[in-house]
Design a protein that fits this description.
292 residues; alpha/beta; Spore Coat Polysaccharide Biosynthesis Protein SpsA, Chain A; 9-stranded mixed sheet; 11 helices
Length: 292
């Protein structure tokens, strides 16, 4: 595995604040045979100045500019330019530990059925300070857990290393999605491939005010479209399971509007949709709240 080429793709839009730390975390990998493809998605900040300095330091970096088209288009652009047998997709504000690639390649060697390997994540703040919170995922055949929102399965795109042949079979990221493009991609991967997990934090997920998931309206739009895609791709093994999964999705969208979105009327609309699809989902949530 020491000789295998790994392609790392970073979509970067106005990423000047964190991009140098992110890039240097890739260049510091113990696995040295890598190419780093940074896609400038129409940025208007100072990231060009920062990345051009890094380009002069390491020939493994490619810096490609495209018109602003969104994170999924940027990831796909990087994938099309890449040559590696394995690919990693790192967000421009997250950080990899030095052994991230090496440990995940070692995991791949243990099981030929693995198509994607992820690891746990340490939460950091805008100042790169660890909060002490760790995100843990799961491994195995995860499609049902992913569709049913059964806890965190795969933390985020920055967590994964994936075989090129997997993307060739399933397709890359859906450009019609923003927040949930990773979720929809994981659905398709999990349909055909086993998922592996390295149960230690090998990367840091940065929480700050500009995180995309803070926009509840985008979250709603993406969640509805993601489950439509899952239905179109015949990912549900039965109609009963499909209704259960849609009910879970509607409940989560409703809770997001009720809380973060501060729109209780819209939240109630989605709670009612959830109840219509599978009353047990809402009733269990109410029962659990009453126990507290």
């Amino acid at each position: 595995m020491k000789e295998v080429l790994v392609s790392v793709i970073i979509p970067a839009y106005n990423a000047g604040l964190y991009i140098e730390e992110t890039v240097r975390s890739v260049l510091a990998q113990t696995h040295k045979n890598l190419e780093l493809i940074i896609i400038n998605d129409g940025s208007t900040d100072n990231q060009d100045v920062i990345i051009n300095k890094l380009l002069s330091e390491d020939k493994r970096i490619q810096y490609i500019t495209q018109k602003n088209a969104g994170v999924s288009a940027a990831r796909n652009h990087g994938y099309k330019l890449s040559k590696g047998e394995y690919l990693g997709f790192l967000d421009a504000d997250d950080i990899w530990s030095s052994g991230n690639i090496e440990k995940k390649l070692e995991k791949f060697e243990l099981d030929e059925e693995l198509g994607l390997v992820h690891s746990d994540a340490m939460i950091i703040n805008s100042a790169s300070q660890e909060t002490g919170e760790i995100i843990r995922g799961k491994e195995g055949w995860l499609l049902e857990d992913l569709l049913g929102w059964e806890g965190t399965c795969i933390p985020a795109p920055s967590s994964i290393l994936v075989k090129r042949k997997v993307i060739e079979k399933t397709g890359a990221f859906n450009t019609g999605l923003a927040n949930a493009a990773d979720q929809e991609f994981f659905f398709r991967v999990a349909k055909y491939f086993k998922v592996g997990r390295v149960p230690i934090p090998l990367w840091s997920y940065r929480i700050h005010s500009n995180n995309m998931h803070n926009n509840v309206a985008h979250m709603e739009k993406d969640a509805l479209f993601t489950y439509k895609c899952a239905k179109d791709n015949n990912l549900f093994h039965s109609k009963k399971f499909e209704r259960y999964c849609f009910a879970k999705m509607y409940k989560i969208v409703g809770a997001s509007w009720w809380g973060d979105g501060n729109n209780k009327s819209r939240g109630m609309l989605f709670f009612l949709k959830s109840f219509f699809y599978n009353p047990v989902v809402i009733l269990k949530s109410v029962a659990n709240k009453l126990k507290r």
